[in-house]
Amino acid sequence: MSILITGGAGYIGSHCCVSFLESGLDVVVFDNFSNSNPESLKRVEQITGRSLKIEQGDIRDQSTLETVMKRHACEGVIHFAGLKAVGESSQDPLAYYDNNVIGTHRLLSAMDATGVRKLIFSSSATVYGEPKSLPLTEEHSLNPVNPYGRTKLFVEDMLRDLAASNSEWRVGILRYFNPVGAHSSGLIGEDPLGVPNNLMPFIAQVATGRRERLNVFGDDYPTRDGTGVRDYIHVVDLVEGHLQAYEKLAKLPSSSNSFSVNLGTGNGYSVLEMVKAFERGSNQPVPYEVVERRSGDVAECYADTQKAEELLAWTADRNLGDMCSDTWHWVRKNPLGYAAESDSND
Ligand code: NAD
Ligand code: WQD
Fold it and tell me: Could you give the CA distance from residue 208 to residue 121 in angstroms, rounded to a whole number?
């Protein structure tokens, strides 16, 4: 029996492949490589010394998914595949509803048709919208403020409806806060196309000299130093949470066959604290300039982690220093990401 990891070649998916392979599970990756490079999967095999089964395909293609799930006797799915850029989702909402909502609908239909009814879904803290109280508990109201966030909420609702309709389903919804960092080998990490939207990859590219300086989006928020505060979580901790969540699915009773859990550390760090921490971790300067606030940003966002501790027996172990030094190790070894390697193989 194997586990199907959709989007397994991407940033979080590739780290999840390592964690699942290392725990002895067999993994099939299903990815259309629209935002990733197959090189990441070679690196996963290098790190683990185990081989992956790789199927190139699109989650919107239900019949191919059914064939793949039957071919590899899949017992469950970890579902990462989708689009994730908040700004782009406002410019091209149809692409987001197509990939994220219709894509997940096709995946669930394929799973139902083949009797594979165990799923872990990558949701996001963005489903909470503007925090009304902090830390954010899972009971906080769900009110996303952009199309990307709404696609995550639609999928969450679809999953809750599906689980309620048939007690054979086992569904875990994981709401990530801000995943950062890289595997300690420096072989896999985050490899954004073009200008990074997120803070950590941008800081890393400034530290390597690829970009001149960081734009800090506002220093007049009601926070310690006026800059935005977020709950950054090491990607390896995050994927270990997936392993715990997947194991939990098998233990859920049919009367309570789904859960939604935050994956964060519970600690908030400001933009300037991130800059300072990265300077310490890399021993490089990170020049910055304070500019206007970015529209749609909130002042502070961090998780209540109690439910993850109680339900999954999981907490994040790695600290901010680990997040910075592992990111630095990855970008130092791969200043152009995976592209350089795949170009040289062409
Ligand atoms: P990523 O873009 O690196 O990985 C997504 C993978 O899915 C890529 O390999 C891409 O090629 C693949 N993919 C996209 N559309 C596909 C399709 N239609 N069919 C098959 N494959 C497809 O993103 P990531 O950062 O690894 O995020 C993984 C998941 O976690 C996403 O669902 C994202 O929304 C969610 N998430 C990410 C973050 C974050 O900050 N990175 C935070 C919260 C939630
Ligand atoms: C963090 C902080 C910015 C870039 C986003 C998505 C969310 C989730 C994670 C997928 C904020 C500041 C950033 C820069 C800056 N993704 N910043 N200069 O906005 O918390 O969350 O990624 O689900 O849905 O919204 O993360 O890394 O973009 O920003 O000053 O160049 O860094 O203003 O305070 P965010 P981020």
Answer: 34
163 by Cβ neighbours in 10 Å (0-12 / 13-18 / 19+) ranks as: buried
The total number of structural domains in the chain stands at 1
What's the gap in Å between 306 CA and the centre of ligand 2? 24
3-state secondary structure of 270: strand
| Beta-bridge mates of residue 270 | 229
Is 0.70 surpassed by the pTM of this model?
yes
Q: What is the CATH number of the domain that holds 197?
A: 3.40.50.720
Ligand 1 close to Cβ of residue 55 (< 6 A): no
Three-class DSSP category at 109:
helix
- Find the domain containing 44 and state its range: 2-341
Q: Which residues are catalytic?
A: 148
pLDDT tens-digit series, residues 286-303: 999 999 999 999 999 999
What distance in angstroms lies between residue 254's CA and the mean position of ligand 1's atoms? 30
What DSSP designation does 1 have?
A: -
- Check pocket membership of 217 for ligand 2, CB cut-off 6 A: yes
Q: In Å, how far from its chain's centre is CA 322?
A: 18
190 lines ligand 1 (CB under 6 A): no
Contact 197, 85 (CB under 8 A): yes
